Amino acid sequence: MIEVNIVGTGNVAWHLAKALGAQNNAVVMQVAGRSQASLDPFKHMARHTVTINNLTAADVTIIAVSDDMIAQVSSQIPFDNTLVVHTSGYTAMSTLSRKHKKGVFYPLQSFSKDDVSLHFAEIPILVEADNDEDEKTLRELGAMISNTVQVINSAQRRQLHLAAVFANNFTNHCYTVAQDICEQYEVDVKTLHPLILKTAHKALENGPTNSQTGPAKRGDKEVINKQLDLLENPDHKDIYNTLTKAIYTTYGKKL
Fold it and tell me: Residues 162, 200, 241, CA angle at the centre, nearest 5°?
């Protein structure tokens, strides 16, 4: 049985508490937050909900807070020499306080509390630790809730997080631009849904490089110039130009 503390009350903390709380070989001992109001939703997921100064030691203490708060929260944990990990994709393991045994427990996914379709077993968990024993503990903990647990170092994880920003955040913003265009001209954005799903499927099946289509890939300058003229929002024009130039370069064409 692995005893776990979770520090934080945001989206990642919520899903981790829910997933770990459902396991037979792990128990969420405490969830710590800044206020009782933020802790109320976690009462049924943990043995105790506490403020950070009342936290007591467990086998693993997981810090699930924003990147810029990890160092501060780590230093405030009121016990020493136990395994403390963070859940950040970008932040180095060394950011954690020296008074702890340090590690990383990073679930690579975009989280929101109301996402009922999320299945933790499908989420890769990337772990890192200072020593083999702690790494083994994190691998065991990860394997309880995920089908994919990988050991990678801070530099690799930082690059993977960067790749995830392109694959998820930037792609989602392009969906937002597409929705804005549809709404501006009173076109049902749902008409794009089959295309969005097919694009993702092809990228996974054939690889994104082999699946690229469109006027930039073809080098169709006439269509590109006409579409630029249609765009009224200057930010949308900038995105269109930047991505068009990137696709041109990737496939060996010149503007």
Answer: 65
Instruction: Calculate the alpha carbon distances from 56 to 3, 60, 63 in Å.
Output: 11, 11, 14
Helix or strand run (H / E) with residue 174: helix 171-184
Residue type, 217: K
pLDDT digits (tens, 9 = 90+) for 171-225: 999 999 999 999 999 999 999 999 999 999 999 999 999 999 999 999 899 999 9
Show contacts of 231-237: CB within 8 Å, 24+ apart: 232/184, 233/180, 236/177, 236/180, 236/181
Q: 129 pairs with which residues across the strands?
A: 103
Which helix H or strand E contains 132, and what residues bound it?
Answer: helix 132-145
Residue 23 has phi, psi (to 5 degrees) of -95, 150
Instruction: Decide if 120 contacts 95 (C-beta within 8 A).
Output: no
pLDDT at 255: 52
Tokens 């064409």, residue located:
253
The closest alpha carbon to 101, from 78, 80, 72, belongs to: 80
Q: How confident is the model at residue 38, as a pLDDT?
A: 86
Helices and strands in the chain: count of H runs, count of E runs: 11, 8
pLDDT at 24 (0 to 100): 87
pLDDT at 88: 94
254: confidence class by pLDDT, cuts 50, 70, 90: low
Orientation of helix 221-230 relative to helix 234-250, angle to 10°? 160
Residue 204 and residue 238 in contact, taking contact as beta carbons nearer than 8 Å: no
Half-sphere exposure for 216 (CA within 13 Å, toward CB): 15
